[in-house]
Design brief:
Length: 249
Amino acid sequence: MSDSILVTDDGAVRVIRMNRPEKKNALTQPMYAAMTGAMREAEANEAIRCLVLAGGQGAFCAGADIGEFLESAQSGGLRPHTLDFLKALAQNQKPLVAAVGGLAVGIGTTLLFHCDHVVASAEATFTTPFLKLALIPEAASSLLAPMRMGYARAFEMLVMGHPLSAEQAREAGIVNKVVEATAVDAVALKAAHEIAALPAGAVAVSRRLLRGHLDVVVRQIDTEVMHFKDRLQSDEARAAFSAFLSRKK
């Protein structure tokens, strides 16, 4: 496992924690690979009945590591561990709870559409600034966000890039509970144990029925990746990345 991903089992609950506080849990390829491995191992382990995906207080996930993201832009596509993680999220068969202790950017927000229960800090913010780099949404969010939030809200967040507060995210149906920052982990873990205590077979069938057709979600991820690669090669994206790098200097 990557040192930036901590995996612990608390009875029937597996906690997968992003642990790169100096970069606000921006995701690297080793982190993506470690989270994918932890989810897939849990699927094969009947003793694990629920997963919790957590970050830290103040930062859940700042999105993809900018250095790796720029390298992906130059090479013209998403890196393999990123795509593996997106598909592992979509195909995950165990209930997934998220503990959002703060900032959630890009994939830090879009991964929440694959979660079954989300607990957020009152200070959390949710942002998807893809189009500022002339790119498009990912993680099947172009399908799942309108289904969850309605088209108007999804367009405002995914295309216009307007951030959501924790309370706005709750009203939009992304977040279940908003609590004090110090209570996020405990409340999320309590919910996970509540889910884990339910009959596992009935939970699995109910979850499949509620989530709909998995193959449609996976196809959407593949379609987004295809367009994402095209966008990376576009003049718009080259101009946006050049402007971004100029601001960083």
